[in-house]
Amino acid sequence: MKTLAFTICSINYLAQARTLGESLAVTNPDIHYVIGLVDRLEGVAFESDKIPSFELLELHRIHIPNREWMEKNYDITELNTAVKPLFFQHFYKQYPDYQNFIYFDPDIIVFNRLTYLLDRLQEHQFVLTPHTLSPFPDTCMPNECDLLNTGTFNLGFIALRKTDQTQQFINWWAEKLAYQAYNDICNGLFTDQKWINYVPHYFDGVYISRHPGHNVAYWNLHERQFTYRDGQWLINDTWPLQFFHFSGYSPTSPDSISRYQNRFTFEDRPDVRPLFDYYAERMNANFNAYYRLFPCVYVRPKKLIRLLRVRKALRMPFEKVAHWLNPQA
User: Exposed e or buried b for every residue in 224-258, given b needs 16+ CB within 10 A?
Assistant: First the structure.
């Protein structure tokens, strides 16, 4: 069965996307990889050695029914997540002879052949990964309440086999994210991720992976220890590491596991330090400092987005809302 994997990012995240693509090419060379680019290449002139070798599919080249509204009302994180099902729709149509479609966040490295995952897709239609497989031992960040707010499944990864059911799913998901992909926890929304809580209720053939090597990240380090033996990383001395999600990590802050957690430091967890050092090395080799300088064309000033949202909430003319927020203007 033919498999396509893709990620979504802007130009400033191309080092991450290239690192992911290189890891797939080494471990799973038969998987076709595409970078969905929430940005425009028009007018961009990369230095010759920094032109990505992977296919770049720009956002404006796929069908988005309410493109203008999304570009106007979503911040860049919300936009990147809201278009995820639209990329799935595009790939379903453009690659009719492919059966498996996998989304990875760009800050992921694949460390092994994805045989276990692809075998599950032969038996099921969906593969999802829960953030955790066991309770947290403390109340540090993140904790169970945080995950209740943001979603029990992590949408840095989702795998689908092309069926009528998964086509219905991505259509439903796209409909929800068209206008409800806000990062608005107080109103029950968290980008594309919170909606996936409903998938096991609404659809058949959903496999919830309990493989400890899937989507390993800061949120599940409390239940996973790392050793390197016979040329591969093992989780809890048994399970091969499949893919690691370096969410919230930056090579410019190399001593922090993630800016989104306060449970562990590298002093607490020296077993994971080599993984992060390797990731930093690959990011730098893939010109992270260079790509970070490119501004994204879809980034809108946060103050303007806040004005638009307050206007919608209060149903007031834009000028009145602007005056209410800044009476000196």
Answer: bebeeeeeebbbeeebbbbbbbbbbbebeeeebbb
pLDDT per residue as tens digits for the range 266-300? 999 999 999 999 999 999 999 999 999 999 999 97
Give, in order, the Cα–Cα distances in Å from 68 to each of 41, 56, 74, 91, 186: 19, 22, 10, 22, 26
pTM beyond 0.70, yes or no: yes
Nearest 5°: phi and psi at 33?
A: -120, 135
Under a CB-based contact definition with an 8 Å cutoff, are residues 103 and 34 in contact? no
Residue type at 227? T
- The strand order across the sheet containing 157-161 reads 55-58, 32-37, 3-9, 100-104, 157-161, 126-128, 206-208
140 within 8 A of 263, measured Cβ to Cβ: yes
Tokens of 251: 């090579």
Residue 7 DSSP class: E
Q: What is the DSSP letter of 150?
A: H
For residues 135 and 144, what is the distance between their CA atoms, to the nearest angstrom? Answer: 8
DSSP string, 12-33: GGHHHHHHHHHHHHHH-TTSEE
Q: 62 near 49, Cβ under 8 Å? A: no
User: Model confidence over 195-231: pLDDT tens digits?
Assistant: 999 999 999 999 999 999 999 999 999 999 999 999 9
Q: Which residues pair with 34 in a beta bridge?
A: 6, 55
The b/e string for 70-87 (b: 16+ C-beta within 10 A; e otherwise) is: bbebbbbebbbbbbbbbb
On whether the CB atoms of residues 132 and 153 are closer than 8 A, the answer is no
- CA–CA separation, 156 and 75 (whole Å): 18
> What one-character DSSP code corresponds to residue 295?
P
Q: Which of 111, 131, 82 is nearest to 20 (CA)?
A: 111
